[in-house]
Amino acid sequence: MVCAWGVWINSPGKIESDDFKDILPGWNSLVDVPVAALPRVYDLDSSFPRYGARSSLPVTSNWPGDYSFKVSFENQEKNNKTKHINWTYSETCNKLYVMKDASCPVNFSTNRAMHHGCTVRVMAVYSAPEHFAQPVTRCLNHSRSEIEKEVLEAEHLVRSESVAFYHTDSESGRHSVVVPFENPPAGQEFSTYIFKFLCFSSCSGGPNRRLLTLIFTLELGDIVLGRHSLELKICANPRRDREIAEKGVQPKPSTSNMVPTKKFKAHEEIYTVNPGPSTKKAKTESKKKKLRIEVENEECYLFLMKMKHLYKLYRGVSDLDNIPSNLKAMICLRFMQKSSSSNNIFGITEACVIPWLTIQTIIFENGPK
């Protein structure tokens, strides 16, 4: 029996993994696979570059490896035209927006068939350096019910609906979920797994509004074969938060090639257009309050009504600024002749109007403009 890369290879051509006996009970540790048919990473060729095992601090950089490990998401918005969606992935921001407790399908793919002993580890970490060393856990409000039931993965934020092993690192306390990597079915380029996230990014006592990064690693025992990371936000409205984030990262037009020009104030007459009657003025006039004058005797009341009638006549004539004064007088006389038969209920006659018009004519001709 020879040990190569943490995997025990028996002489008859069978592979036995001691690592997965302990962490994944029930998995078949004996696989009838010829040694010659295995990918290069399992060969005993010493010239093959040997990649290191998992580090104490998780690495967040993308590294597809020799097997082009890739994580992808379907475009849910094409399949669901409603405003409400459970999750959405932004390629612009490289960020997954997902609702709490929502089933989110994640696709894993490689450029060749992998051995059944390979696994995919999913781990959530804090993005900011000041919080990076802290493990990501659920808030007490959402995990209390499972803690009371003594569920082992009660504090794990990331859950899998597939066969999975929930691991807690004894030194760092980090939580991760490990699922077996399954080769894609015939006619398909990827394998799909369903994951859930059981806390909001804003939960106090949990993520507490701190930025999250989700790391996917393709592993064989302690050997990392590929890595893919993306940002994560667990929210109530994934579509809204994605649209807001993408608007914030849209590139602004470059001003480096623009020639600076001198600013000047254009002449008003070039851009002035006759707007017609001002709507603002009309609104203010319509909002004027009606005033009332209270009198104690009928004689004063009749006098004021006569003055009101004369004021209306004066306003009608004064608006005709471009009409000669003698023509204004003729218009007033004509108006008084028509109104004397029906509307002249206050005794207004031509004898009292003509002197008044004469005075107004003098004011129009010689008065201040």
UniProtKB/TrEMBL annotation:
Annotated coiled-coil segments of the chain: none
Site (Interaction with DNA): residue numbering on this chain: K83
InterPro entries named among the record's database cross-references: p53-like_TF_DNA-bd_sf, p53/RUNT-type_TF_DNA-bd_sf, p53_DNA-bd, p53_tumour_suppressor
Gene Ontology CC terms, in alphabetical order: nucleus
GO BP annotations listed: apoptotic process
GO molecular function: DNA-binding transcription factor activity, RNA polymerase II-specific; metal ion binding; RNA polymerase II cis-regulatory region sequence-specific DNA binding
Compartment(s): Nucleus
Pfam families named among the record's database cross-references: P53
Major localisation: nucleus
Gene3D superfamilies in alphabetical order: 2.60.40.720
Binding site for Zn(2+): C139, H142, C199, C203
Keywords of this entry: Activator, Apoptosis, DNA-binding, Metal-binding, Nucleus, Transcription, Transcription regulation, Zinc
Record note on cofactor: Binds 1 zinc ion per subunit.
Ranges for domain p53 DNA-binding: 60-247
Top-level taxon of origin: Eukaryota
Names of the cofactor(s): Zn(2+)
PANTHER family listed in its UniProt record: CELLULAR TUMOR ANTIGEN P53, P53 PROTEIN LONG FORM VARIANT 1
Protein family per UniProt: Belongs to the p53 family.
Name of the protein in question: Cellular tumor antigen p53
Originating organism: Trichonephila clavata
Gene name tied to this protein: tp53
